[in-house]
Give the backbone structure.
Amino acid sequence: MTDFIIETSQLCKSFKEKAALRGLDLRVPAGSIFGFLGRNGAGKTTTIKTLMGLLRADSGSAHVFGSPVTDADRSIEVRRRIGFVTEDKELYPYMTVEQIICFTRPFFPKWRHDLERRYLEIFELPLKRKIPDLSKGMRSKLMLLLAISRDADLLILDEPTDGLDPAAIEDVLRELVAIAATSGTTMFFSSHQLAEVDLIADHIGIIDQGRMIVSGSLDDIKARYQRLRVVLEKPVELPVRWEDGVESVRQEGRMISLLTSRNVDAIVEQAQSIPGAVVERYPVTLKEIFLEQVRSN
Amino acid sequence: MIFRVNQSSGIPLYLQLMEQVKHAVETGALREGDQLPTIRKIAEDLVMNPNTVVRAYRELEHEGIIELKHGSGAFIKKPSEGRVRLIRKGQAVLETAIERLLSLGLSEEELRRAFEHELSQANAKRAQGTAKEGKL
Amino acid sequence: MLWYKGWLETRFRLLFILGFTTFILLLQYSVRTATPPPGARDPAFGLILFSNPTLVLMLCALLGGAGIVTQPSLQATKGLHGSTLFTLSLPVSRLRLLAVRAGTGWLEVVVVIAALCCGMWLVSPAFRAVATPVEMLEYAGTLMACASALYCFSVLLATFLDDQWRAWGTMLSAAALWWLSTHTPLPASANIFRAMREGSPLLAHTMPWTAMAFSLGLAAILFFAALKVVQFREY
């Protein structure tokens, strides 16, 4: 029985006329690096804010570390174990880098001074500079420093690499991977950088229009999603009713391209049963899976 | 030991890592008894999920190429007699196949492409298979 | 560290208010040297009756709840709103956040009232002639107690209005209530405004205990209401 650090069930949340979450089911296993993907406006930030207790769901349940997010008594202890990076990376405009670190430290008894020093160096954060004078990228890094140095059990990061240049993105991801490799910290982060998520995540969830449309271990998903290329002898229109699990079919002349989301073997068999057909399999990138699922939804 | 993976090649990352280790062994860059970098180091250097590295190492151990010594790390194993014989057998099979195909009129380039194609198909099947075996 | 944060947030506002207070006192000082026309009211009393409470009102409106930001306000940078999410993600109860924020503001109100009273004492011989130091202290205490209700009203408004609306909202509401209090018969015990003017120790020579208690009680209720808003609000 896997331990789920974050678990939501049929989470619903509407704002005025717009329904942001329509029955979201999310399960983040302990110790995983979970990539939370979705288009803008799909409900990523709403989900994250609900988990942090900043929004109240209309219906459904959400649990973090086993306690419901609405439990006010335990919420303070829960927040002590979470490192949070907000979407807009805004911090107090009247403080300097040094001041906000001094301000945040006392709230976390497990504060790691070694990590603080390390990130100040790696991220090249100027101690005496006022926060509004920092670029967005630097503010992102500062928020990460504040989130990671508290030695959290769970990191909830809303677009942590937003505003960063490629070198900085690399730095940040490397640090996240290092944390994953050494401690058992669970990482739940939303991102638009599909290539990066493909590299470092071991679980993903794709949210679209307030619902989870794909979720699970990345290895599993990559195995289920395959591109099949079927080459026919003659350019015939096939009145084939494909097996369950075919997400899309595209035919151009003698070539048919299929994307499967499950049941690959049965589909391959079906394709191979077409007289004269040659079937080949190709792996699919996370980006293709994402685009395909989000477009067809 | 410097490893590199190509994110967009479509070949699963753990397989790419495995290939690089095997290639290093075959070319002599890695010898029997040499220690591979820690899982953490490779994960950090390549910025990839540590579990992927774990999977590669486990597969390599399964194939008898490396030995995971609990607590000390991963070491290149001396290929067992059985392994060496198997490799020799494989080479013999390839030799016959290549001779035949060349005599049929295939060019070296066509031959190479055909070989790589079949190999990637086999890899795709295998990747699906190991994933089904469950989490490590 | 929350107190430190509160201080950093409002220190410039405080300096502004202290500056304004000094300005009022300088005005008083300059008036003192002018000879009042016969029959005219002693300007010192004008100060007690009008300017002081006005200043205190302004003070509460400006300092009250400063930092409890709700919507992105017109002049404040976007930073202040976004940072609210950061604050709320810290392992602190919203009660403590509100209490410290309101507390720092209230301490600043107290400081300014004290500065005002000391300033009045130093600047105007008319006061020194009329009131004893003890009475000045009593006057300061009265102002502080009566200001509490006004201050907490501003804190409550701050929980759902943005900065500028809140400041104007407090001042206008207070001015309206003041007007009402002078035109409708309110029991002297509940009339906070009266307690700051005619009922104050400087003029009535007694402490308006009931008005002060009423103000403090009202302040507690308003603070509690503000707490409920902050706890149930969504960000």
Remarks:
- Chain A has a mean pLDDT of 90.
- The interface with chain C takes residues 49, 52-56, 72, 76-77, 79-80, 82, 84, 86, 88-95, 99, 102-108, 131-132, 143 of chain A (CB under 8 Å).
